[in-house]
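Reopening this ticket.

The earlier resolution said the output was attached, but the attachment link was broken on my side. Pasting everything inline this time so it's all in one place.
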Amino acid sequence: MLPTRLIHRIEMNWERIATSILEETLRDPRVPSYREMHEAEVRSRCEDIVKNLGYWLTSGDEGEVAERYRALGARRKDEGVALAELIAMLQIIEVQIMQRVQWENSARDALEVYAELEFMRALRRFFRRVIYNAVAGYENAGGVARLHAVSGGGWPG
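Inline output:
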């Protein structure tokens, strides 16, 4: 069971997390295209992930995740963003959320520690799906119908 209070606190602090992601983007040499991107676009992506984190982690709708992040991968390819940059940016978002979780949740007992670990596992699974589908969309930009037919449109395994 995921800790709903922790998820709620993370979602409510999406703006702080987005700000930390934007700051990290300015420092991280792996993401030069994102520094050139309009801040509103980066902030919007952060808002989508963080503000809806509970939904993404509990919905079980892998098709929606696949569709959304394959489209993002294809869009980034069309914008000329390198695949490595796309992956690095998704990793930055994941790390910033994990750091906020650790900051927000000062576990006081074994049950809270367990809940935090379960949350981190769920977050990691979500980002593996996000990265997989973003890469698939990137690699198959313009060939989405073929990709969907080959992979079934979802997350393998």
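Reporter confirms the inline version is readable. The mean pLDDT is 84. The chain has nine helices and no strands.
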